Structure formats: C-alpha cells, structure tokens
Amino acid sequence: MSFPWAKNYEPKAPLMRWLDEKLPMPRLVYNAIGAGYPVPRNLNYFWNFGVLAGAALVIQIVTGIVLAMHFHSSAASAFDSVNGTIMRDVNSGWFLRYAHANGASMFFIVVYTHIFRGLYYGSYKAPREMVWLLGVVIFLLMMATAFMGYVLPWGQMSFWGAQVITGFFSAIPVVGESIRVWLLGGYAPDDATLNRFFSLHYLLPFVIAGVIILHIWALHIPGSNNPTGVDVKGEQDTVPFHPYYTAKDGFGLGIFMAIFAVLVFYFPDYLGHPDNYIPANPLATPAHIVPEWYFWPFYAILRAFTSDFLLPAKLWGVLAMFGSILLLFFLPWLDSSPIRSNNYRPKARIAFWVLVADVLVLGYCGGSPAEPIYIILSQICAAYYFLHFLVILPLIARSERPRPLPNSITEAVLGEHAGTSPAKTALA
Amino acid sequence: MVRGIAFLVGAAFAAVLAWALFWTVQGLIADPPAPTAEEEFHLHPRAANLASDGIMGKFDKQQLQRGFQVYKEVCSACHSLRFVAFRDLEGIGYSEGQVKAIATSYENIPTINADTGEPGVRKGTPADRFPMPFANDVAARAANGGAIPPDLSYITRARHGGADYVYSLVGHGYRPQPAKLLKEFPDLKTPDGKYYNPFYANLNIAMPPPLTSEGQVQYADGTKPTVDHMARDVAALLTWTADPQLETRHQYGFFSVLFLLIASGLAFGAYRNIWRDVKH
Asked: Range of B234's domain?
C-alpha cells in the first residue's frame, strides 16, 4: 500500500481471524477505506465528493433494480408502465421514480464538482494520471447510461432525444447512416431501440462500479492529492482514513442526502422537462428538443458549429462535441507545469475560473432555444473551451511565476515553524 | 508532440468557430430576424393561486370535487383521463358509496359479452379507469377538426406553467384577435375552426371555448359558478390527477429533511470531536 507507516490489519475476533486467513476481504476494506489508508490531513470539503459519487451510484443501482421490476421495455407500454403503474399503482413507486430521476442529477452535480476539484488542484498530474484516465472513462460511461435511461420512459423528449443523439452517427461520412440504423435497430427509435437501451442501461452501472474499483485502486498507489498539491513527506502529514475521513464524509453525506430529499419531495420536476409527460409521438416534433441539463454544455458545443468549412457543419459539431470530452484523456500531458495546486499558480487559477464561467454559460446556452444570441455566445465559449485545454494550459506555465510552495503539508497547516511538532504527538 | 497536435486541433476548432461566428453575425446584420406574432402576443399564464401551491401545499378537497364536476360535465366530452380510476376519487373526499355511484353512472365501459363474445358496453365499477371519449385516435381526430384532444391525466405537468396554464387557457384565454396583431401580421388571421388564445403556444387553438357562461355547471356546494371559478377548480383537479401524492410527498419531505439535518448536525459534532486534536 501507499505509505510505510500505514497501519496493518490485525483481526481481533476469532471469526475475523479465520476469515482473514481464508479470504482477506476485511483486510482489503481496511486498507481501502479503513484505518489502513493514510490520507493527507489537510483535505477540504471538495474531497468529500468522491465518496458522495459512490453513494449516488449505490442509490441509482438500488432504486433502478426495483424500478426495473415494474418497467415494460416496449414502445407500446413503456410510458404507461412508468406513468401509470410505477407512479400510481406500485407502493411508493413514485418515490422510487423521483429518487432515480433526481438521483441521476445529483450524481452529475457531484461528479462535475469532483472533476473540477481535480482540475483546480492538479489531481490529474503525475503520479495520478491513471486515476484521472479511469475517471474520464467513468464519466463517459455515466453519460451513456444517463442518456439511455432518459429514453426509457418513452416520453416525447425520450424519443426525440434518442432520435437526435443517434443522429450524430449519421454525420460520419459514407457509413454514418448505416451505423445509425444498426444502432437503433431500425430507421427510427422503436421497440428494438428501447429494448437494447434498457438492456445496456441495466448493464453499464455495473461496469461503472468495476471501473470505480480500478479508479480507487489506482488512487491508493500514490495516495490522495491535497489542496497544496505538495507530496506527503512523512507520517505527520497524514491521518488514517478511518475514523478521520469517514467522520467527515458522514457529515458530507448527510448534507448531500438533505439536498437530495428537498429535490425529490418538493421539486421532483424541477430538473426535468414537461414534454416528457407527453407519450412519444414520432409524428409530432417538440418545439425545442433539449437533453437533460447535464448534457447542456456539450449540446451547446454541438450547435455552435453552424457553417461548413471543408467538412459539413454537422460533422464539425459532432467531432467537437466528442472531442471536448476525449481531450480530457490527454490533459495530464497537456498541462506543462509541474505544480499541481492552482493555489500556487496565479495565471492558471484565473484561466480555471474563466473555464468554470465558460462551461456555465455553455450550459445555459445549451438549454436555451437555438436563437442567434445563444448561438453566438456558444461559439465564443466553445472556442474558449478548446483554447483553454489545448493552447492556454500547455503554454501558460512558461510565462507564469508560481508562488512559493510550502515545504510540507504539515508546514502549510501549522504555519512556518511547525516542523518540530508532528501531528503524531497530537494524535496520540 | 502531444502538445503540438493539441495546439493544431485547438486552433482548428477555434478557427472553424470563428468562421461560424462571422457568418452568424453577418446573417444577423444582413437579415435581422423579424419579430414574430408569438413573441409579441403570447402571454405568460396568470397565477391560479391554488391551495396545493408551495412546499406546505395541501389540496382543497371541496375545490377538487367542484373541479371534478366541471371535468365530468364539460371536459370529458372530448378529453380522456386514462390514468385515473374511479376508486382514486376517494382521494378527493368521496366516500366508497359515492365512488360506486359515480362509477355506475358511466355506462359506456367497453367489454366483451361473456356469452356471445360480441364487443359491447357495461356500467362502470370503482376499479375501472375513466372511459375514453373516442373509440380511437382516428375517431378523435375526425371529430375535432384534425386535432386530438390530449389526455388530461398529466396535463398540468406536461405543459410549461402547469395549473396556471390550464387555468389561464380555459378561464381567460378566449378573446377576439387583437386589431394590433392583424395590423402587424395581416396574414395571421385566425383560421376558421381555430380560436385565438394568447396563452396557447402558437396563439390559435383548435379547442372551442369550453367554459362560455356563468352557471354552465351548477355546483353542488353552492359556490357561484363563474367562468373564472370553473377554470380554477378544473385546474386544481388536474393538479391532483397529475400528482395525487402531493400531500404525502410534502409530508415525507418535511420529516426526511428534518431527520437528515439533525443527522448531519450529529455527524458534524462527531467529525469535530474526532478531529479536535488535529489541526487541519
């Protein structure tokens, strides 16, 4: 495991000793999220979001499994099974459905915060590149899962969302249309589409769970990053995950659940779209087709490409939309600064906050009708998005004078003259 | 190497976006978008101010029963309520006996004759859902000038503005087309068979005015049946049909949030206590 001073698992109860000999499962848990994992002592509340994302996945899987017991994956009865059976006849079915729909939103809120935390504190940099790469894989899987899940209730936005998203593939030259038909299992979304989306929507969360295990495994080799971005130097810089961070995460989880409950019980439709309460109708296109809010920034990038330039505008839009996520795979090698935390990078910090504002504006534009003002804003913000990652971040370190880094985490926490009083004595 | 390729890709996307931006702005200047009639004359719905509004909202069952009377005597001629069963009406304050009486008053529940196998109709039972006013979509379309009257079960959640929209549309929407509109858009005279209604998205709705005069419905509880009242009451009913668990939801919400805040407070105390000797 990560550090030589990590505590060793010593089973006390005879049963646990017996189990540890045959199958060291308790040891695995102890070293992963127990006292056997030393964590920097200075993590702030943004480090709660990894655990919250895990909790959100568990909520989605549990509610989803029960919902699947009542769902019909047929174009003729999917809408009625959700809005009739589940919402009205199944005991507390309405609660499960709201929890699952809003749980997806909570999952994305948490994961976006988690991603931006990683961007700000340079958690993607060496030696944590693999943690970041696996995180991007999880993000892609989440997007696919969420998209297919939104199709299942077979409302107007479900149907037309499926139509638009699978339409991306028809932008591929020559074979695009054939690929689209193959993906849909027909010329338009129908039974075949709904069935395969249901099947994959049930499968992918377990794939996500698997990649999360790899994500945590990869994290435990270098250990967690921290707000200073400075490496752990000794035992005084860390505390055991349990009970220190389990307690802190417990508090974070309580606040997360309280916000989630407000959404589920008081504003269950707030993040949804009224059109999805209208049954899918292939003959009536909604006035504005919009995806769920968590796709809005990417939808804005797609729609920003309005003019042909060597390639058709639609192909540019699709390339840019996928590119905007795929470029994250190269981020560890694009950012040339060895300093992780933006707390010590005055210029990169400004660029980071501009990026946050940029993505929020893109999101706003993506959720708005395709009117010229929103298109113009999307074009400007999409250009900044690409320039930020592909041009600014690689170059900015050259002209930047970083602020002095603390010598150690302990020094950063206790001030300049603290090297002499290690946290160990305080812990004892 | 990675950075060189990235630089080229970034420059390419930025250049294509700049090109698209140029043409968008150019198009905007060369051909500024003309204001549309919808932009100018579409109205946001008026507030229906229902008892169920807000996080402490509860249904006014008396009002829901009046709304049900409006649905039964007016709306149900064309609009279905296919997700609602007669037994659900106990939720708006009717007794078991009253529900049975309401159900049996519907004599057009489709059935198969048990002896001959012929399709026929029978009286309703509490377990039945409200019958469909038309045999199928084709019949519905044919009887309504080409537009299918939508099912009303979820109507307040399937439209922007919800209950306010329903209330405004049927209670205050029908009016003569403004002279100003005809002056600015002479081509947009409301076609025959359509009705001007500024709360409707494209301003011209196929539904004839459903609530036309005071006293169209004689309320059993003696409330004065003005058009405004009838519209408000039916909007309240349709809020219930779309969201029958509203009161349970609010109740669960209160206790869940209270519990979670207390639990968070305790967890915060535990966190501070565990960390009390560790500066961080």
From this structure: 37-84+129-244
